[in-house]
Amino acid sequence: MTMTTDHVERTHAATYFRIGAWCWIATGTGHTIGDVFLRAFPRDEDKAIDDIMRASSFDLMGLHRSYYEVTMGFSLAMGCCMVFVGILLLWIAKLTARQDIRPAAILGLAMSAVALTICALLEPPPPIVLFSAACVAFGLSVGTAVRGANR
C-alpha cells in the first residue's frame, strides 16, 4: 500500500468521525434551543403542563424543588452535555489524526447507538435522525479505519 492510500483512508475515517461528532453537537444545540424556545413561547397545552409541574414539589437531597425545576434542569444540562460531548469527540479526532482512530470511533458508535435506542423509544424524530446519522458516520469511520489498518 502506498503512503498516499493510507493517508486517504485515515482522512476518510477522520472525516466520518467528525461528522458523527457534529451530529452530537447539532442534537444538543437543537435540544437546548428547543427547550428555551418552548419555555419562552409555550403553547396553551404546554402552559397547563408547566403549571401542574410548578405546583407539584418535593424535597430532593435537602432542597425543595418543583417538578418543573428538576425537569428543566435535567433537560438543559443534557442538551449542554451533548454539545460538549460533540466538542470532546472533535478534540479526540484532532488528537488521533495521525494514529488509529478506530478505538475512538467504536466508542462514538457505542454512545450513539445507546442514545439512538433511548431516543427511538422516547423522543420525537429530530434526535432519532441525528443519532442515526451519527451511528452511520461512526460505523463508516470504524470500517474505514479497519480496512486501512488491515492492509
Task: Describe what is shown at a glance.
This protein has 151 residues and is mostly helical. The chain has five helices and two strands. Helix 1 packs parallel to helix 4 and helix 4 packs antiparallel against helix 5 (125-150).
Description:
By secondary structure, the protein is mainly alpha-helical. The protein has one domain (3-150). It is 83% helix and 5% strand. It has helices at 3-40, 44-55, 67-95, 102-122, 125-150; strands spanning 57-60, 63-66. Strands 1-2 form a two-stranded antiparallel ribbon. The radius of gyration is 20 Å and the shape is elongated. The termini are close together. The mean pLDDT is 92. Keywords: Membrane, Transmembrane, Transmembrane helix. InterPro entries: LIC_13387-like, MFS_trans_sf. The chain crosses the membrane at residues 70-92, 104-122, 128-146.
Average predicted local confidence, pLDDT = 92
Strand order of the largest sheet: 1-2
Identify low-pLDDT runs: none
| Helix share bin | over 70%
Strand proportion: 5-15%
First CA to last CA: what distance? 7 Å
What is the count of β-strands?
A: 2
How many domain modules? 1
Q: Describe the global form.
A: elongated
The count of helical stretches stands at 5
Class based on secondary structure composition and strand pairing: mainly alpha
* Alpha-carbon Rg, integer: 20 Å
Largest sheet: 2 strands, antiparallel
- Element-level helix/strand string: HHEEHHH
